[in-house]
Amino acid sequence: MKKVIFSALMLFAFIFNAQAQDDDKMNADFNKWQARFRVVTVIPSPGDNLDGLDVDLSTSYIPEIDITYFFTRNIAAELILGTTKHEVEVGNSLATTDLGHVWLLPPTLNLQYHFYAGDFKPYIGAGINYTFFYEIDEGAVAGMEYDDAFGVSFQAGLDYNLDDKWFLNLDIKKLLLSTDVNVDTGAGVLPVEVDINPLMVGIGVGRKF
User: Fold this and answer.
1) Do 131 and 148 form a contact (C-beta atoms < 8 A)?
2) Cα(6)–Cα(8) distance, rounded to whole angstroms?
3) Which end of the chain is more exposed for a tag (fewer CB within 10 A), N or C?
4) Diameter of the chain by CA atoms?
């Protein structure tokens, strides 16, 4: 009986040690750096910011680059870089006013958790954003001034491995972002808080390093 127990314990120790070595190898066998190039659709979701008047920002299509660093096999940080231009209008069903256009530069840093399912690697993330507004065109008003602003980012996506280095990517992000805008009407300055809250849907290709 003692021999049977001893043999079972030795077998258990061997299996446990082999599993631990496999886990260590799996945890060590990952690329710490990767980069993606995406084509992204940026869809703002503004609300009623001027007492019943709708602020409308146009949808934009942009290239985007991101760089990701993996702290562990599952946990990573992603820096997202891109810039986008939006036409701006305000009005209702009766009339609209052209407020020109504005460029947004919204660098975003997300903390991610990656899952593994064969060649598929879904992930979720959340982080912070700081948006710069520049190259402002005033349109039909005398002047427009946008305040740079912080925002919050939420993200979900999926990588699909083509080989050991290259992969395809589908990514969806939502930014909760608003900015204070001073509109110079010519008769005075009108302060407005504008919600932008863009939904960003991207598809692209990536490489591991």
Assistant:
1) yes
2) 5
3) N
4) 98
DSSP secondary structure letters along the chain? -HHHHHHHHHHHHHHHHHHHHHHHHHHHSS-SEEEEEEEEEEE----EEETTEEEEE--EEEEEEEEEEESSSSEEEEEEE--EEEEEEEE-SS-EEEEEEEEEE--EEEEEEE--BTTEEEEEEEEEEEEEEEEEE-TTSSEEEE--EEEEEEEEEEEEESSSSEEEEEEEEEEE-EEEEEEE-SS-EEEEEEE---EEEEEEEEEE-
Asked if 51 and 68 count as a contact pair (C-beta separation under 8 A), the reply is no
Cα separation values, 134 from 13, 14, 56, 105, Å: 64, 63, 18, 8
Structure token digits, residue 113 = 């958790």
Q: Name the pTM for this structure.
A: 0.81
pLDDT tens digits, one per residue of 117-128: 999 999 999 999
